[in-house]
Amino acid sequence: MRPARAVAVAAVAALTTTACLGPTGGARVQQADASGDGTLRIGLVLDNTGPQNFLNAPQLAAAKLAVKEINAAGGHKGKPVELLPETISADAAAQAKALVAAKADVVIGPTDSSRAPAAIDVLSNARIAMISPANTASRLSSYESHGYYFRTSAADIAQAPVLVKLARDSGAATIAVVYEEGAYGKDVSNAVAAAAKDAGLGPVAVAGFTPGQAQQAAAAAKAAAPDAVVLVSRTGAQGAIAELNNAGLSGKKLILSDGAVNQYGSGLGSRALDGARGILPGTFASAHFQGELVSVDPGLKDMTFAAETYDAVNLAAIAAAAAQDDAGTSIAASLIAVSGGNVPTTGGAVPDGDTTVCKSYQECLDAIRAGKRPDYDGESGRISFDSSGDITSANYVLYRYGPDNRAIMSGSETAGSSGS
What we know:
The protein has 420 residues and is of the alpha/beta class. It has helices at 9-21, 56-72, 92-101, 116-125, 160-169, 183-198, 215-223, 237-246, 287-296, 306-323, 328-338, 361-369, and strands at residues 41-44, 82-83, 106-108, 129-132, 149-151, 175-180, 204-209, 228-232, 254-256, 277-281, 355-358, 373-376, 393-401, 407-416. The longest helix is centred in the C-terminal third of the chain and has 18 residues, at 306-323.
């Protein structure tokens, strides 16, 4: 269901200075000396197996499409960019080690946030840049990567103000937050409570539950007599919705976090979600982009994380072009600058060249050649990496449920990545 984003010497000097001096947070801050071998190699960590294996195809198609377009524009310094042969395994560390051995300069992936630390440890030690198109765990913003880790998807907590806005837009003055125990539930529920307070909503009741044991939390929510209930859950969502229904909290009173949105259909009681709202991260892929992806993989049925993967590959190539070097250190050091990031610098100024928004590798390459600083905004929207390697704004697709407990797209919203 997920919706589916020859260089002038003066320009290179300006871009490299800004990117390398960069922010004071987790991203690269040291000067990056050119150390590549002249061939830009991009690797993929495809870690989806079992029921989640459908997530591999859109990411692979998007990476192939981006590399195809980059090479059509001349590749990196006149040489074709290589997309390393992919493997599929839940062992992200083993995949990372194999990509190090294959001389990858940048790695796209993994999907699962829980597998990211193992890959980060391997790749950062090898000084290889890593951009995940799908990691959303908030804790990864502060994970020690020595500046080599970035992601084109927003942290889970970014959805908090959007969930609160949905409540306010429906006329709610008070809310209850029912959350599933665990890092996701606690992080997002805390962010929702904070966002509700900032938005001037009345007392916020917060109750946690473990999957299959949501009756007490539902009772606590009912006792608070809220105007709306925000459910923050993943695996335990269906059971929690059923318990909330039993407590008289159903339909348009419910607002579902991204982990709780699903096509429940007959899995819930009749009209249990009629009028309920929910959100999913990302943007709905344009017809043109979908068509380009299908031209790469005619059997493609899902577009999940395709835009974020496409943008990650383009950003890596643009960063290499700006640095005139394909080494992982140079790429990592240039990513904030070419993404349009605006963060405090130490020891230097921002580039003298004007900033130019560009939406493709070719457009960004033209900007660099013209002595300008490229600001890549791609299929997933505005990116602008911050000092932690996070995007600074998050896009969401809004959904509304009908009487059949199925969701249809109803709009979109944008929020800051900090959850405020």
